[in-house]
Amino acid sequence: MMEGYRSGFVSIVGSPNVGKSTLLNRMVGQKVSIVSERAQTTRNRVMGVLTRPGFQIVFLDTPGVTTPKNRLGEYMLKVAYDALDEVEAILFLVDASRGVGPRDELLIERLKTAKPPVIAAVNKIDLVSLGDADEAEEKLRAAEAFADVLRVSAVEGRGLDALEKKLFSFLEEGPQYFPDDMVTDQPERVLAAELIRERALKLLKEEVPHGIGVGIDKMARREGMELMDVWATIYCEREGHKGILIGKGGSMLKRIGTEARHEIELMLGERVNLQLWVKVREDWRNSVSAMREFGYEP
Ligand SMILES: Nc1nc2c(ncn2[C@@H]2O[C@H](COP(=O)(O)OP(=O)(O)O)[C@@H](O)[C@H]2O)c(=O)[nH]1
Ligand SMILES: [Mg+2]
Predict the structure, then answer these.
(1) Shared domain check, 221 and 78
(2) Both 161 and 215 in a single domain?
(3) Of 16, 132, 181, 198, which residue is the least packed, with the fewest Cβ within 10 Å?
(4) 28 and 158: one domain?
């Protein structure tokens, strides 16, 4: 262990859609956790590593805390709650534009019993007046659950230096857990599947997106060329959803594929040939074997 080196784990928790994944990506400078305007986008614990001279912060992004509606939801809640133990600090996020609501208050009660110190951050301050930000901050301070309350905008990057300094103060002397160039523990195929799901979430409407699972069937580098072949299947829960996913004359699937390919190319730094299929798998969010296949370990 390097003399004086500091490190630690920080879990990011909060209600769905408050900007946890956006904040993680911004802190580590790379998209490691997918983002969408829909709740329930993050399904797994996603690790993001911030390495600086002399210290390392390992962030754990988690699914938003909400009442589960199926086995996948139960799994997601467990992932979020498990992340409250054995970390050096917890970062609790609220959305300034929605204020501190009942769902946040429930989670705050749970956080009061957590062992690690909890820092609260009011996110999305770019969307609200100073008065609204003040109100959210005061409400959080009044809860007497937090070591500190900060204000940030994950999208604009505001307040993130102060946040990093604050989190640094909770690190303990410890090892550099991960090498300098490692930003996440997720393998390329998991990232690729997530990027496909992100595009589908963005382009599809209504109830279809929540029931989407993406499986990578094969991912292989073509010899002698800087080209990755990716074969993937998008699973949905109903025949009707399949039609929507494919679109008129295959137009929707083509759009998802084009945008996802671009994202995967950015991630890998090489050209990608992406082949997408769509299949129906009824009620898969209640199926343990399907969940395993898509990378969730119930
Ligand atoms: N205006 C604004 N939007 C944000 C900010 N942070 C996140 N968002 C948006 O909020 C939505 C949910 O973000 P996401 O990171 O997926 O939230 P999560 O469910 O908590 O992980 C997305 O549309 C983001 O672009 C912010 O600081 N300002
Ligand atoms: Mg998220």
Answers:
(1) no
(2) no
(3) 181
(4) yes
3-class secondary structure, 55? strand
* Residue 1 confidence (pLDDT) above 70: no
Ligand number, closest to the Cα atom of 36: 1
pTM metric for this prediction: 0.94
Q: List the domain range (segments joined by +) for residue 142.
A: 6-173
Determine the distance separating the centroid of ligand 1 and the alpha carbon of 2, expressed in angstroms: 37
Question: Which alpha helices (DSSP H) does 4-70 contain, by range?
Answer: 20-28
Give the H/E segment covering residue 123. Answer: strand 118-123
Q: Residue 204 domain-assigned? A: yes
**Whether 97 and 237 share a structural domain:** no
Q: Tell me, yes or no, whether 201 and 168 share the same domain.
A: no
Ligand 1 contact, 19 CB (< 6 A) = yes
Considering every ligand atom shown, identify the ligand nearest to the alpha carbon of residue 65 and give its number. 1
Q: State the distance from the centre of ligand 1 to the C-alpha of 62, rounded, in angstroms.
A: 14
Residues 20 and 120 in one domain: yes
Give yes or no for residue 41 CB within 6 A of ligand 1.
Answer: yes
Q: How many domains does the chain contain in total? A: 2
For residue 139, pLDDT beyond 70: yes
The pair of three-digit structure tokens given for residue 219, joined into one six-digit string: 């991912």
CB of 121 shorter than 6 A to ligand 1:
no
140 plus 255 within the same structural domain: no
Atom of ligand 1 nearest to the CA of 123: 27
In the chain, % of residues over pLDDT 70: 99
Query: How many whole angstroms separate alpha carbon 209 and alpha carbon 291?
Result: 16
Q: How far, in Å, from the CA of 93 to the mean position of ligand 2?
A: 11
CA 18 to chain centre: 11
106 & 168 share domain: yes
- pLDDT-derived band at 3, boundaries 50, 70, 90: confident
Look at phi and psi of residue 54 and say left if phi exceeds 0, alpha if psi is from -120 to 50, else beta.
left
Q: Does the pLDDT of residue 10 top 80, yes or no?
A: yes
